[in-house]
Structure prediction request, 317 residues.
Amino acid sequence: SALPACLAMPACNGAGGPTLGAKRPWKSALSQLTSRADPNHRGRDRVIAEGSPQTILGKFTYSLADIAIRGEEVDVFVERGCAGAWEKLGTTTTTNPGDHAAVDGVADSGGRVYFDVPAAKALAAGRHRVRMVVAADATFADAVIDVIPSGTPIFVSDVDGTLTETETAEWRALFEGEDSPAHPKAADALSALAAKGVRPVYLTARPEWLSGRTRSFLQNAGFPPGIVITTAGVTGATGESARQFKTEALARLAAEGASIRWAIGDTTTDAEAYEAAEIQPVDHRVFLRLSDSFGGRRIEAYSELLPLASASPATCK
Prediction:
């Protein structure tokens, strides 16, 4: 009876979108020329504490060269609770490099939006889908926002090698135009944690432009829907850079009131980041085929984690 009510965890991957008005003219001829290439836009998922300022982040570029558009209008819409009804929150413009201070660890590299949700339209506790639409050509980027009360339980999982069959599986799959294969029973084990009310956060050092493919992999492999956090750059991170990125991301999650109950990884950089975050109990730091010098639990397959997750207590009702 002391358990809090569970926040809904909808998939937020519906095919519908907001009703758009007429396209508006480009602000610059350079943007119009850039837009002749395929869009490479992306939104950034976020975990935000209930009652805190809410800023929506996106990046707007075209072509494989990732050429940003600057000074262009972007309309911002929300699907509250991912329930199907869309509402316009407002309009913002894409930045020039350095126009805006960093938010959630994302420095302003240009072509970004940092949209502050008006207080009168603030997102309630729960999960919401945001769509950012370029006013001149109606191309768009989506993001998912989890607004959480303080103490909300989450689990954090790495992706490459941890959920995919190998560390490099995504690069081969990207070349072949397919999804990466997942470890057997991995989706079942993580779904069992989510069923206990532990909200999923997928923390990967992949580059930002792979966020869409990461969501596709998770959905198609049957992982529970959650927040996807990547690096903010175009090259991703490895080694010490990956450790630092994950350490800082975990600290920001904690600052937003998230209570990290489980953490899953497969590298020493994961182990170091989880140790820095002081995730407890230590045996809830789970490592696939890795012996953790800090005392985390080693598993050889997700069939070992599944019964532990299934037997763990509910965190909400």
